[in-house]
Design goal:
Strand content: under 5%
Largest sheet: none
DNA-binding region: 39-58
Shape: elongated
Number of strands: 0
Keywords: DNA-binding
Structural class: mainly alpha
Helix content: over 70%
Domain HTH tetR-type: 16-76
Radius of gyration: 20 Å
InterPro entries: Homeodomain-like_sf, HTH-type_Tx_Regulator, HTH_TetR, SMU_134-like_C
Order of helices and strands: HHHHHHHHHH
Number of helices: 10
Distance between the termini: 50 Å
Organism: Lacrimispora defluvii
């Protein structure tokens, strides 16, 4: 996969919209057909632009994928920012923070469920995809670490960096189970038990 810098960076509103349309169509096709089965000609056709217009903005299909991944990663950063604003309110009920983060992760994965499946496949053959997925994981870990630092006096754990890794791995495993698997029990029950387990691991009983 080559550099993620597009061949042209549009400045006019019409050009920006055209580029966004190409990217959005590519995303839809990657989800529906898979990355390798989607061609630039097909992307151009569905986006209702000439193949020349597509190559005006993107050198190849890889470049489109990298830009999609960049936007995908930004969604995690927005979650981080919105939850940071509410950190103090979560102090009254730490379970709300745990529940909120898990639900945001589930929401994000469900919104791009097919794309996430495709990314898991692509991560084995494209280092850039693997790097983006690792970056997303690190973003969630940093969100968790920020919370632990902000409410250190309420915690029973002392090694916050290690604890953030433990929590993120538990959450990620549960999110994958809920989003990608057919479960014998309702999702809400899995979420509740996961939240309770993480809460008991992190928070001192006298802080409730």
């Amino acid at each position: 996969m080559e550099s993620n810098q597009a061949t042209r960076q549009p400045k006019q509103t019409r050009s920006i919209k055209t580029k966004e349309k190409i990217r959005n169509v590519a995303y839809q096709l990657f989800c529906e057909k898979g990355y390798f089965k989607t061609t630039t000609n097909e992307i151009a056709k569905v986006a209702e632009v000439s193949i020349g217009s597509l190559y005006f903005y993107y050198r190849d299909k890889d470049m489109i994928l990298v830009e999609i991944l960049d936007r995908y990663n930004e969604s995690f950063l927005k979650v981080h920012e919105s939850m940071n604003v509410q950190l103090e309110s979560y102090r009254e009920n730490p379970k709300l923070w745990i529940m909120g983060l898990m639900e945001e992760m589930i929401k994000s994965h469900r919104a791009s469920k097919e794309f996430n499946k495709e990314l898991k496949i692509l991560s084995h053959s494209m280092p850039e995809v693997s790097a983006v997925m690792e970056k997303q994981q690190e973003t969630v870990r940093q969100m968790t670490l920020d919370y632990l630092k902000a409410f250190y006096d309420m915690l029973r754990v002392k090694d916050l960096e290690a604890a953030s890794i433990v929590v993120v791995n538990i959450m990620s495993s549960l999110v994958d189970q809920i989003v990608f698997q057919d479960n014998p029990v309702d999702d809400s029950r899995i979420i509740k038990e996961g939240v309770d387990a993480i809460h008991q691991y992190l928070i001192r009983q006298d802080s409730d």
